[in-house]
């Protein structure tokens, strides 16, 4: 079973500096400003000069209204807060050297930019504790306070007519615990939504003054002037009128997926040779992340887990399958590309089989394997998961050279074909990973006959060695765990990996 981290609620030309730009100011008015070089403070952050526009300005509607739902007045609110970029894209890059190290980050907006203070960003899911929202009643009393993380990639729209038509940035922020790098950004002249509240808010019917403030530490890091750090709006909460005032259920956090451009279809026909050309230019580099989501089933007879294999190379992994006659087998070819994206070669790398019982699509046979190892490294159990339909389910490191920020194939709707397919293309884009959860029958490790003790879950990419990649020494990852308890009531404990802590689930 495939899983994506987006299921956990955790969603382009540039105007030149020095040219006049039109920005939306709080309250919906327009102001004109001109760019100018900024100075840098002692911490390395570029400060705004006397005439320098801020990297972004906040915007919010003058008034909002919402209907309370159910007992106590339950609301899911989109306050409409936007961060509006000026003459330059606003970009935040975050990275960690390994899972023992804290996140480091930098930001840039044309001539402005700097290093983010240590500890400011908790993880890759967004800008930690970026906004503070206060709700005051008509007497001026604070009745609710919310602090919100913000993902700059949660969609957006042009805020001025001459802004670029498209944005290069990803849609959504990574939610995988083992992500190692991310990019967030707002295109020049675009507005990014900030204040979806993913927790229900309870407010009695009435009128409220809502104040939105950028966390002072973030405001200082971005060099925001006092007038650019906060704004307010008027919220009117009404009684339910029998009609829903929201679409669907509680708002869902944006995923790390995006519609892109990469290599949408397979080659026109099968190659006439098993191999041709050379793969001495850009190549994929498959790496395995430590297993996560480790838990026992209700009867404590099977050990479940999730695993991600990702591409750290400077080229996508592109595998095309071509059907052999009318059978349920395809020959699989890996294709190679030069730095300009032109195809320069191919090689047979295995087979694709049609899986009709549970999946109804085609699986590549030589992508990964999962094993449970004893403390001495000997094999204790294997997973029945041996074939894969590649999809870019997780953003793992969008800071690697050649990373595709808007990959295709972020779900199973197009990547895996159907019973009538003559050919298909499966792609793992640079910077993205493919995550599967081993919950189906035959995929979890059977552990009822295994003694208590320490074990390793081994996740291995490219196990047959047939796929061509930059480096095969980083294909295997190991995650340590301890089995305990007694038959029918087994336990599992999983130590953290560096600063990444995961709680194992025991029935």
Report on this structure:
- The protein has 507 residues and is mainly β.
- It folds into two domains: 5-238, no CATH class; 279-493, no CATH class.
- Helices cover 1% and strands 39% of the residues.
- It has one helix and 34 strands.
- It has one helix at residues 216-221; strands at 21-24, 30-33, 56-59, 63-67, 74-75, 82-85, 90-95, 104-109, 112-115, 127-136, 142-150, 157-158, 181-186, 190-193, 201-202, 206-214, 230-238, 275-277, 286-288, 292-296, 302-311, 317-323, 329-337, 343-355, 361-364, 368-374, 379-382, 394-395, 423-428, 432-437, 445-446, 453-461, 476-486, 489-493.
- The strands form eight sheets. Strands 18, 22, 23, 24, 25 and 29 form a six-stranded antiparallel β-sheet that branches. Strands 19, 20, 21, 28, 30 and 31 form a six-stranded antiparallel β-sheet that branches. A five-stranded mixed β-sheet has the order 4-17-16-10-11.
- Strand 20 and strand 21 form a beta hairpin.
- The longest helix is centred in the middle third of the chain and has 6 residues, at 216-221.
- It is globular.
- Residues 3-50, 241-262 and 503-507 have low confidence and may be disordered.
């Amino acid at each position: 079973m495939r899983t994506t981290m987006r299921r956990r609620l955790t969603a382009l030309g540039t105007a030149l500096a020095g040219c006049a730009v039109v920005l939306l100011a709080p309250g919906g008015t327009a102001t004109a400003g001109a760019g100018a070089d900024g100075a840098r403070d002692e911490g390395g952050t570029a400060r705004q000069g006397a005439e320098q526009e801020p990297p972004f300005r906040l915007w919010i509607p003058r008034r909002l209204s919402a209907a309370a739902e159910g007992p106590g007045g339950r609301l899911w609110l989109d306050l409409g807060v936007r961060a509006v970029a000026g003459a330059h894209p606003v970009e935040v890059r975050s990275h960690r050297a390994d899972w023992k190290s804290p996140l480091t980050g930098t930001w840039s907006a044309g001539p402005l930019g700097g290093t983010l203070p240590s500890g400011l960003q908790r993880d890759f899911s967004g800008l930690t504790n970026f906004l503070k929202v206060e709700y005051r009643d008509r007497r001026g009393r604070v009745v609710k306070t919310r602090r919100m993380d913000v993902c700059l990639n949660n969609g957006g729209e042009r805020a001025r007519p001459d802004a670029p038509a498209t944005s290069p940035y990803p849609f959504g922020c990574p939610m995988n615990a083992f992500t190692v790098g991310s990019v967030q950004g707002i295109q020049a002249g675009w507005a990014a939504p900030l204040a979806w509240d993913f927790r229900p808010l309870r407010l009695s019917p009435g009128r409220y003054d809502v104040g939105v403030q950028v966390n002072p530490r973030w405001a200082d890091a971005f060099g925001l002037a006092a007038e650019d750090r906060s704004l307010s709006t008027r919220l009117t909460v009404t009684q339910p009128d029998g009609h829903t005032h929201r679409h669907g259920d509680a708002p869902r956090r944006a995923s790390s997926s995006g519609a892109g451009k990469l290599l949408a279809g397979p080659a026109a026909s099968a190659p006439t040779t098993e191999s041709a050309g050379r793969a001495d230019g850009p190549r994929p580099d498959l790496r395995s992340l430590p297993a996560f989501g480790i838990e026992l089933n209700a009867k404590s007879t099977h050990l479940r887990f999730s695993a991600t294999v990702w591409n750290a190379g400077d080229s996508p992994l592109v595998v095309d399958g071509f059907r052999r006659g009318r059978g349920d087998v395809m020959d699989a070819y890996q294709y190679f590309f030069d730095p300009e994206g032109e195809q320069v070669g191919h090689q047979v790398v295995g087979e694709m089989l049609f899986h009709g019982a549970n999946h109804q699509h085609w699986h590549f046979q030589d992508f990964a394997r999962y094993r449970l190892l004893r403390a001495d490294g000997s094999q204790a159990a294997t997973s029945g998961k041996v074939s894969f339909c590649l999809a870019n389910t997780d953003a793992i490191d969008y800071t690697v050279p050649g990373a595709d920020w808007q990959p295709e194939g972020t779900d199973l709707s197009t990547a895996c074909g159907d019973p009538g397919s003559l050919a298909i293309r499966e792609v793992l884009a640079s910077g993205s990973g493919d995550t599967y959860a081993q919950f189906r029958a035959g995929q979890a490790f059977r552990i009822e006959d295994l003694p208590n003790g320490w074990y390793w879950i081994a996740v291995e990419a490219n196990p047959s060695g047939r796929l061509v990649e930059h480096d095969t020494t980083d294909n295997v990852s190991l995650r340590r765990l301890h089995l305990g308890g007694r038959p029918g009531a087994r336990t599992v404990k999983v130590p953290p990996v560096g600063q990444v802590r995961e709680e194992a689930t025991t029935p």
